[in-house]
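Protein: Cystathionine gamma-synthase
Species: Rhodohalobacter sulfatireducens
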Amino acid sequence: MKFNTKAIHAGQEPEKTSGAVMPPIFQTSTYAQKAPNVHQGYDYARVGNPTRTALEKMIAGLEEADSCSCFASGVAAIDAILKTLRPGDHVVSTNDLYGGTYRLFRQVFEPYGIEFSFIDMTDIDEVKSAIKDSTKLVWIETPTNPLLRVIDIAKVAKISSDAGALSVVDNTFASPYLQQPLLLGADVTMHSTTKYLGGHSDIIGGAVASSNEEFMEKIRFQVKTSGAVPGPMDCYLVLRGIKTLHLRVQRSVENAKQVVDLLESHPKVEKVYYPGLKSHAQHHIAAKQMNDFGAMVSFTLKDDTIEKANEVMSNTEIFTLAESLGGVESLISHPASMTHGSIPREVRLKAGLTDSLIRLSLGVEDAEDLISDLKQAIES
Ligand SMILES: *Cc1c(COP(=O)(O)O)cnc(C)c1O
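Structure follows.
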């Protein structure tokens, strides 16, 4: 099955009792048993729910994974992955990381004795020298947020597996429509389903997918034991969102490219960050490992002040000033004060995230409207 067909059919079958084409929202906490432990595969809804199962099978299909577990949020999915580690274990992670992931690593898991190295993963030599005997996990996020650097998944995954560590890719920014980490050699892929998979800015959710059965067994143990599970209504909404994933992402990427053209030629714009640009430092890697270059765009202004950036962001009418990404509506945001507010300024600047950087998440509106909105906001 090819991707667009999978987005509709992967793991889906009509509901058994009625033939309903979409899985019902199984709003239940428990399931009747015929005799103790004699049931139809479900005993308690923290452990499993048929609506959730339908979503998990779908995401496993899209990510070419043998199985998937869904969570109440993206960070809950990351939390479950990190809890498979033990004190003394070491994680190699990118330094250009989603702010919430960074906070979870530094403020929750570091105090429990997990050790982290935050490195520039676009530099393969840095990856090699960061690996230690105790390295158990290599955490890849690509394209990165918000600077849209691209990490070579195949190369980093190879270094990781040679060292006996698991490689995990946070695939939220690309979505499986544009990038399938397991096919590139990564062990695990995870999502904030809040973003492209859900696609409509109406739920919070997460997912972990892998074909490493030993690892997924540990994840299912986390699902059952820590219990950060999504409700059936949210699972239904993500599943519904996924049915148009390919259409939405395709249009969003087209819009991103047109917006990039405007920004590149605009006299008030200093620098545009987009993996599709030939001038992008890892353009060749993006071209190799992604099906297209994504719908996230960042840029800085020649007037490199936080005041000017604030002015632009407050002046857009179609772009909504908000955190998050991957929905049908275009969003504009200021990483330094919003998504990355919890990262200390020195750390941010060292990673290249300046005070005036503006990030766009392109939605599926008409490109002409988006362009004229951005133009008037920049010129105001
Ligand atoms: C949003 C996001 C997360 C966290 O997901 P939530 O659903 O908000 O908990 C993790 N990684 C990336 C790249 C994200 O964009």
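Remarks: Residues 56 and 68 are 5 Å apart (CA to CA).
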